[in-house]
């Protein structure tokens, strides 16, 4: 008999796996609406939608294995990372989706709130927060929006025989900064960036990707802590911030 496995669970969202079916339960039904529409628009392999009800989405499992997990070396080959880069480039060249990403002003305001919280609550040393906030400033430059995944974590791209078999978790898809997708995918896996960019196939500003590593880690810290995750585990967000020093 298939067992129910909890993939992720917190106050905003829970994902369960039963056999080859994933059930996503989201407190904000709009997130699932975005995911359904994005899956239909994305020109890359995505999960099959089995059914949809208010606050619940059933998806079929995608074949293959995730590129890795945060905090551990990626088991994927350089060719698999290059294939992921090619898939991300294909997504970024697709027609824009209808949802806009936050503006630079909104991102700055949110980032500064999180930095103030990290320092005020002695979560991280002030000099570490300040230095990474300075590095993150490179993100705020003119950029052309693309069809962005928005949460392209290393666990969200699956490959098999060095080919991409599925990209999952589309609830944050929007018109976004392409380098944010590349940064999120390589967060904590800097050694894989060259292989990813070899498949992506165009010149990018690596310093901006590194700036996104700082920004993402600073902004995510409080949410992770408040939802039962530890950004201080080896190789995770706090190590990413320390490495930027």
From TrEMBL:
Q: Which residues form the signal peptide?
A: none
Q: Which InterPro entries match?
A: Aminoglycoside_PTrfase, Kinase-like_dom_sf
Q: Which GO terms describe its molecular function?
A: transferase activity
Name used for this protein in its record: Phosphotransferase family enzyme
Q: Where are the transmembrane segments?
A: none
Q: Which UniProt keywords apply?
A: Transferase
> From what organism does this protein derive?
Kribbella jejuensis
Residues annotated as domain Aminoglycoside phosphotransferase: 40-204
